[in-house]
Every structure is written in structure tokens, then in C-alpha cells.
Prior knowledge:
Elements: E1 5-13, H1 16-27, E2 30-34, E3 40-43, E4 48-53, E5 63-70, H2 74-83, E6 90-91, E7 101-104, E8 110-114
Parallel strand pairs: 1-4, 5-8
Antiparallel strand pairs: 1-5, 2-3, 3-4, 6-7, 7-8
Amino acid sequence: MTRPRLxxxxxxxxxxxxxAAFYCEQFGMELFxxxxxxxxxxxxxxxxxxLIQQQLDGDVATGFNHFGFQVSEIPPIAEKLxxxxxxxxxxxxxxxxxxxxxxxxxxxxxFDLSEHGFLPPGLAE
Length: 125
């Protein structure tokens, strides 16, 4: 891979199960992961769409949340981001195996970085 590739989009939704069913039924996407919080992850085999279940006790509104790039190596990208004046990416917490690092652009939009990609094991990257 010579340049980062956009491979992941994430939206906070009110009913992740219903939204996943919609994308699977209407566009032939496949459900490949469900989080304990009810978030659903679907794919078309290339792009991963995260449907993050909105939490009533949370402060994150519905709508676009973040996107993610698959990259060959994190360190050179982290260095370029630091040189561009934004914070270095930080290791993501939690148990989601889809992205290793979280970063922000100059206007504060979140994006993920992953060396292994955003699709589940066994699906071609």
C-alpha cells in the first residue's frame, strides 16, 4: 500500500440493529460484529460501516462520528501529523479490534488509523 486508504465510516445511531438491517437488506452489506453496547458493524467487503448505538446517558449526538484510514505503518504517519501541528495519534482503548489509533484533524474531527485494516479476520483487505 503506497498511501493511506479510507476504509471505515462511523455514525452514532438511535437503533443500530434496525440500521444494520437496513444496510444489509437494501445494499447487500453483511453484519460481521455486534458490540455488547448494541453497536453493529457491517461491511461491503471493502468499507466497514460502524453503526454506534447512541447511549441515553451519553453526550454524543446522532450523526457522523469518525472515519478511518488503513495505513502501512503508524509511526511515519504519526510523525507527519505532528509536523502538521496536530497531536500525535493515541492508542485506542476498549475491546474493538478494528483500529489501533485515534487522531484528530486541524478542526477536531476524529479519525482512526489501522495497520491491519477495519474488516474482520478472514475478509480480504
